[in-house]
Write a structure and sequence with these properties.
Length: 340
């Protein structure tokens, strides 16, 4: 593997000049900086994290800690998260480290160990819980982090999020405006921040329109095809009032809903209208459903760049006001909703 000395010799520069060019110091000319970085790429140079830590106080390494679960290696969403974040941090000259915890391993001791080794400059937190203990722990430890979402009553940390409450309001109101009064909501796993926020938006839209809030129509569970199928079968079994419309927390749930309704010989949208939030997950196109699915759309991949920007900014000590970002979403009406 090439060293700073190898690059310096190849370009007839001093080691100090090469180091300062690679670290974007202002006293290095643009031409020299570009020559050095091009040579570093060509020679497959990778900075030593320990040496960088000694010089700058930073390792240039950030981490993502996730729990182990069954089939994690086949989870398309997980792979997209890792690939997207890795690419974004790599583009900023930073290294992205993935740490998978053992099953049932508590999270905070893992963060404590990683912090104790002093090799990571910060962390990305995903799937935040209500009052997520990781946030308080990292704040007290003085470690930079960014959250994909928002947790807690006091939002005094970097984050990237979308307006989950409002998108739930939009989907619910769209159905109410077409005459629906029994609207089911297949939401995500209870305890997740975005899940609670979407439930709040759903219930707010019902109240605003004077629609009865029927508790059996709001369901929590894994956001996958199997849950969509089984929960839809449950909604259409028994004696409880059946929904005329279903909101799905993502398109994987919606695919399960479509399958269940087809098996029950219930038509979309003739008998039941269906809408969803679309993260544009790998291999799932809402426009390819039959009938094409009405959605709010905010591609998950649009999260990686602002998350990387916010964490890099937090590490550099930039003002918090520039490190809290809200992404937009689109409302796309297709053919899965009918008026009643």
């Amino acid at each position: 593997m090439a060293t700073l000395k190898d690059i310096a010799r190849a370009l007839d520069l001093s080691i100090t000049q090469v180091s300062r060019a690679l670290n974007d110091h202002s006293d290095v000319s643009e031409d020299t900086r570009l020559r050095v970085k091009e040579a570093a790429r060509a020679m497959n140079y990778h900075p030593n994290a320990s040496a960088r830590k000694l010089v700058s106080g930073r390792s240039g390494m950030v981490g993502l800690v996730v729990p182990q679960y069954r089939n994690i290696g086949q989870d398309g969403i997980f792979l997209e998260v890792v690939a997207g974040l890795s690419a974004q941090f790599s583009g900023r000259g930073m290294q992205f480290v993935l740490h998978i915890m053992a099953e049932q391993e508590p999270a905070l001791p893992v963060y404590q160990r990683l912090i104790g080794k002093a090799m990571l400059d910060g962390f990305v937190l995903i799937n935040p819980l209500d009052q997520d203990p990781r946030i308080d722990f990292l704040q007290r430890a003085g470690i930079a982090f960014v959250v994909h979402g928002r947790s807690g009553k006091t939002i005094d940390y970097p984050y990237f999020d979308i307006e989950n409450e409002q998108l739930a309001v939009d989907l619910t109101t769209h159905l109410i405006a077409r005459g629906h009064r029994r609207i089911a909501f297949l939401n995500g796993v209870e305890g997740r921040c975005y899940v609670a926020t979407r439930e709040k938006g759903y219930r707010r839209a019902l109240r605003a329109s004077g629609v009865e809030d029927l508790p059996h129509l709001h369901l929590n569970g894994e956001m996958d095809e199997a849950t969509g199928l089984t929960e839809t079968i449950r909604l259409f079994s028994g004696t409880a009032p059946r929904p005329t419309a279903i909101i799905c927390g993502n398109v994987r749930l919606a695919r399960g809903v479509y399958q269940a309704l087809a098996a029950l010989e219930v038509s979309v949208p003739g008998d039941v209208s269906v809408v969803a939030h679309d993260d544009e997950l790998p291999g799932l196109r809402a426009s390819a459903f039959f009938p094409a699915l009405t959605v709010t759309k905010a591609p998950l991949r649009d999260s990686w760049e602002p998350l990387a920007d916010c964490l890099a900014g937090a590490i550099e000590g930039k003002p918090l006001s520039g490190l809290q970002r809200i992404g937009s979403y689109d409302f796309i009406e297709r053919n899965s909703v009918a008026a009643i």
